[in-house]
Amino acid sequence: RYEGIKPHGHYCVPILSGGKVLGVINLYVKNGHRRDQREEEFLRAVADTVAGIIDRKQVEGMLRNIAEGVATATGESLFRSLVQYLAKGLRVDYAFIGTLANGKKDMVRTLVVSAHGQIAENFEYSLPNTPCENVVGKKLCSYPNGVQRQFPDDHLLVEMGIESYAGIPLFDSEGEILGLLAVMDNKPMERIVLVESMLNIFAVRIAAELERKRAEERLSNLYEEVKSLNQELEEKVTRRTKEYEAAKDAAEAANKAKSDFLSSMSHELRTPLNAVIGFSQVLQKQYYGELNEQQT
């Protein structure tokens, strides 16, 4: 007892979210007040409302911090930041982003992995008989506890000591599957509603970045292809130009040889004809008299 406080009674109602205690509503009542079921139901309803407000405020704060932290990030930097924020905000041991390995629908290769607050090495694993198989089957799946018992053939869960799992598929703007976002923990996930809500929010941003990155890669590949074609065209033009110059030089050389030949032939033909023409003129003018019968 504290000095000045009169005898009294009180209601003490826990504020719960997913089985986790977020706080307590403590209501003082007059001494001798009898418990009333309607009052207790009302206080539980108030506690549930307060729990929802606390959850929402925590999500808003988390999203605000994330928005500030990744405002200028893109690509791998963005993915690393998002999985670390997600793991920290949800207080889970693991968070990762995975895509279908080489287009195969039964294999996943991680793009980035957060393990116990640190970026870990990427890995590849088979989808059959894993909780991720249901996620890639195009639906959000959550297993708040006992996930190993539900997927006994998933040896990775056993090796990592995973107790709970939640994952969501990542779609492009055409509705095609890009990969998945998942979180895992070595203990049960108590606030599974919050986990699913955060996964839905994060999935939109991650899918948009994956699609942007894929479009950027396609554009880069197209640019390299056009660049290669331009180079081939330039080389072909250069080669054909050289062939043209060589053919032109050869044609000019042939024309010169022809001209030289005709000039030489003309000279050779004119030389004996000049004598013939000269003798003809002499005979025609009868400088030496008329030709006799034997000369004609």
Secondary-structure map:
Layout: E1 8-17, E2 20-30, H1 37-69, H2 75-90, E3 94-100, E4 107-115, E5 118-120, E6 124-126, H3 131-136, E7 141-143, H4 147-150, H5 155-160, E8 164-171, E9 177-185, H6 192-285
Antiparallel strand pairs: 1-2, 3-4, 3-9, 4-5, 4-6, 7-8, 8-9
Helix pairs in contact: 1-2, 2-6
In short, what is this structure?
Helices cover 54% and strands 21% of the residues.
Overview of this structure, please?
This protein has 296 residues and is of the alpha+beta class. Helix content is 54%, strand content 21%. The chain is built from 6 helices and 9 strands, in the order ββααββββαβααββα. A hairpin with a 5-residue loop joins β8 (164-171) and β9. It is rod-shaped. The mean pLDDT is 80.
Query: Looking at the structure, what is the overall shape?
Result: rod-shaped
Query: How much beta, percentage-wise?
Result: 15-25%
Helical segment tally?
Answer: 6
Which class of secondary structure composition applies to the elements? Answer: alpha+beta
The major pleated sheet works out as: 7 strands, antiparallel
Count of extended strands: 9
Radius of gyration: 47 Å
Mean pLDDT: 80
User: Low-confidence spans: pLDDT under 50, at least 5 residues?
Assistant: none
Features:
296 residues, alpha+beta, seven-stranded antiparallel beta sheet, 9 strands, rod-shaped
